[in-house]
Write a structure and sequence with these properties.
Blueprint lengths: L13 H14 L15 H16 L5 H8 L1 H17 L4 H13 L1 H7 L4 H16 L6 H17 L7 H11 L5 H16 L1 H8 L12 H11 L12 H12 L1 H14 L6 H15 L14 H17 L5 H32 L4 H12 L10 E3 L1 H9 L8 E3 L7 H4 L11 E4 L1 H6 L4 H8 L1 E7 L6 E6 L20
Parallel strand pairs: 1-2, 1-3
Antiparallel strand pairs: 3-5, 4-5
Helix pairs in contact: 1-2, 1-19, 2-3, 4-5, 4-7, 4-16, 5-16, 7-8, 8-10, 9-15, 13-14, 14-15, 14-16, 15-16, 16-17, 18-19
Length: 491
């Protein structure tokens, strides 16, 4: 389900290109393809660097975001295995644990978001590993140390999962023996703190822990992340970004979201299900807080816990039925049939679209243009792209950073602006994508580029099209009214 049509759907998100470019930088000895400003801990794209080199080597002709998505397949597979392990360790019988994995793996939201190159996918893998170690039936001290280490690696992959720390402590309390519990907590704390300290220690050694003039800083960026960026509004208020995001999630999969959330409230009274139920409720409360920033991929963190809670509560209900085992087997089959009848048609429609739709031809065409169209000496040509196509431009021979320029850095990074003494006049081409056009009103240099650009090729039509724009000395006119039919390039 993940691999079928992975390069065709969904439409690329600029974050995917950013993380993939940062993974490329790791393979070349840096933490980011531009100045690393502590926007996220780097362990997520360090892992991406470790898994993405093979698809890029085996399939060099594919657009780089497709190569990156293929690299996410083993991450999705390992996450499903760990979801099964956690299910078994909270007391699910094998069929129930397998059902939880199916609920998780076939959910349209998981099919959509686990294909994409998101740090949350790495974080969820490590969170599930931490839960599996904390619930280890052997109750070995080193398992609890490993739980702390795994959770630290989850936070270093995507810092937002740190809100699950209280839940994991409750899990460790349930999974440890009363006589050795204090050693279990000490071991967990040691693994978590000693692993997590690598990040602030790196910033300290670079002189970038505290804010100051002339450099980025870990604490300065953290302050911005917590209070400086614009919030998404309340999910209960129509018209806000959070409300639209919740509506989109519920449109794609109302059954697992509503069913799993309801199950989490009921499962709090079942001791063995309490860890996964608390995880659902904590993550849901964080998502529903008014005024906070809520990204599209946040729901990735909740999905496995929703599936485990729902499957666990159904099993608990069936176990309470009186009578012979045959009655319970019949009840389990009836529950499975009811799930298929209720959610099956909607899931089939959503998943069928995911594996058959082709939304990304424009990106494949633009990537081919970058690689094949002669524009002179690419090492000297300057081209502005969005995050998704930046690495394609680099692979095509454009100079990283100051030749192939990520549009977001035009006015944001002094290392780039100092190489453009004449501003927009120093740029030769712009690859105009939906993400790039959406930012032009906020970036003065990008706005000037659009005012002095003429299209040489167009791929697709409407708002999802991609235009190749050549920068002219004279102002361009009516760029937005350029016909949306494809303009053939010289080839």
């Amino acid at each position: 389900m993940r691999a079928w049509g992975i390069g065709n759907y969904p439409f690329p998100n600029d974050d995917e290109g950013t993380y993939l470019a940062q993974a490329w930088a790791v393979r070349h000895g840096e933490l980011a393809h531009y100045t690393y400003w502590y926007d996220h801990p780097p362990f997520g794209w360090i892992q991406l660097a470790a898994v993405s080199w093979l698809p890029s080597w085996l399939l060099p002709d594919l657009p780089t975001f497709v190569q990156g998505r293929i690299a996410m397949l083993p991450v999705a597979g390992a996450t499903c295995v760990l979801a099964y392990v956690v299910g078994r360790r909270i007391g699910l019988v094998r069929p129930a644990a397998a059902a939880a994995v199916l609920l998780y793996a076939l959910s349209p939201l998981a099919v959509l978001l686990q294909r994409q190159i998101y740090l949350d996918n790495f974080a969820v893998l490590w969170v599930l590993a931490a839960f599996a170690f904390a619930l280890s039936p052997r109750r070995h001290l080193w398992h609890h140390v490993a739980a702390g280490t795994a959770f630290a690696l989850a936070v270093l992959s995507k810092e937002t999962v740190a809100v699950l720390l209280p839940v994991l402590l409750v899990t460790l309390w349930q999974g440890s023996h009363p006589r050795t519990r204090k050693f279990s907590f000490a071991g967990f704390g040691s693994g978590f703190v000693l692993t997590g300290l690598f990040y602030p220690l790196y910033a300290l050694l670079k002189g970038e822990l505290l804010p100051g003039a002339g450099h980025v800083s870990l604490l300065g960026t953290l302050k911005f992340q917590l209070g400086g960026r614009e919030g998404s509004g309340s999910p209960f208020e129509a018209g806000t970004d959070a409300h639209r995001l919740f509506a989109d999630w519920l449109t794609r999969d109302p059954y697992l979201l509503v069913g799993g959330a309801a199950a989490a409230v009921c499962a709090l009274v079942v001791r063995r299900l309490r860890p996964v139920a608390l995880a659902v409720l904590v993550l849901a409360l964080v998502a529903m807080r008014p005024g906070g920033y809520l990204p599209q991929m946040y729901i990735v963190q909740v999905l496995p816990f929703l599936a485990l809670t729902l499957a666990g509560l159904v099993q608990a209900g069936i176990a309470r039925l009186p009578g012979r085992p045959r009655l319970r087997i019949a009840a389990a089959l009836a529950a499975a049939a009811a799930a298929v009848a209720v959610a099956g048609p909607h899931w089939y429609e959503e998943d069928h679209s995911a594996v058959t739709a082709d939304n990304n031809r424009v990106y494949r065409d633009a990537s081919r243009w970058l690689r094949e169209t002669p524009v002179g000496d690419r090492a000297k040509v300057r081209i502005v792209t969005d995050g998704v196509l930046w690495l394609d431009a680099v692979d095509a021979g454009y100079r990283p950073g100051t030749g192939a320029i990520w549009h977001y850095k035009l006015d944001q990074d002094p290392a780039v602006t100092k190489t453009l003494p004449h501003g927009w006049k120093d740029i030769d081409y712009v690859v105009s994508t939906p993400a790039l056009r959406g930012e032009r009103e906020h970036l003065p240099t990008l706005r000037d580029l659009f005012a002095h650009a003429s299209p040489v090729a167009t791929f697709g039509e409407g708002g999802g099209r991609i235009d190749i724009l050549r920068i002219e000395n004279e102002p361009a006119t009516q760029i937005e009214s350029t016909p949306a039919t494809q303009i053939q390039n010289n080839q």
